[in-house]
Amino acid sequence: MGNSMALILIRTNFWLKRLTSNIYLCTLSITSCSFLLTVVISWSDTYLRLPLYSESELGCKFVSFLAHFSDFICVWMISLISCDRMIVLYRPRIRKWVCTRKFAITVTSGFVVTSVILYSWLFALAGLQKYKMMDGSERSFCGLSEDVNWFGYKVNENYMYFIFTVFDTVICTLIPSILIIIVNSFSTYRYHQCMKIYTAGVLRVRFVRAPTTEQQAQQLDDDTIQFEDTKKYLLSTDNTNSNNSTTNCGKLRSSDLQLSRSLIIVTSTFVAFNVPSYAMRIVQATFKPQSTTFQFIYYVSYLSYYLHHAALFYMYIFWSPQMKKQLKPTAVRLLECYCLKTVPDFGHRSTSTQDFI
Hints:
This protein is mainly alpha-helical. It has 12 helices and 4 strands.
């Protein structure tokens, strides 16, 4: 619901869909929906005993591929959003080439192709595995195929699971998380730097009443001279600490800063929700602890991993003033369009000329 709501808001609002970062957000919402769909399919197959893919080799391969493909795209779209915000805040010369729709579409397409290439091996190696129940009966689950050998080794061995887990952790968590932490640190510093300048009043418009007495006129002249001296100092070359930041921040709109703040919060939340799950997977594959406490923490880390796909867009919507402002009008407009359609008037006016007499 959150992903669909954000996607509708972005695609139906004229100003929101013009932002470069929203191309990444649209892709993120679509792939998050597809990932959560695989979670629902897996849950239904495992706990509701619905034979959705656990009895089909092809179904197992496709669901495994779709889950890993979607997760990879989600992670790197969040990384691209962080980089895009840092470029908007620092305004380097490459901004006019990087912060464009053409560049965003090209990069997004490149990551989609990369994800397909990286996880295409699942169509060859994923498959059904058998395990025995406590009553002696056998059941199958979707894992690594028992009939495939890779360089002379069976792919369903435990060390192969460990290799694939490390590979997935590096490209889907370690590298993106380090990148997001570094980029968000710079963006947060820049955001606070710009906010200090805006709140200092240097870039604000001053409204002054006309003086009525000679004393008020003299006081106004003194205040104006003091204000101009302060402004000249802040914008002068002598004040090297604030010169560049004031000039660049003067080009930023208030909406840019608000959007940057909300996206910094969203991308930082991704790191907080995603890293514990992969860390616990490594611990599980390496040491195989069996304590009840570890199993509980392991389960909670999985819940947080699934939660970030669902919660990020709720945070984006309710932390972004523009999104909150557009939420109710968009919902009402969609409701009127799809549920409360009126009979078309076929070119006739609904009011009569007699109403104006």
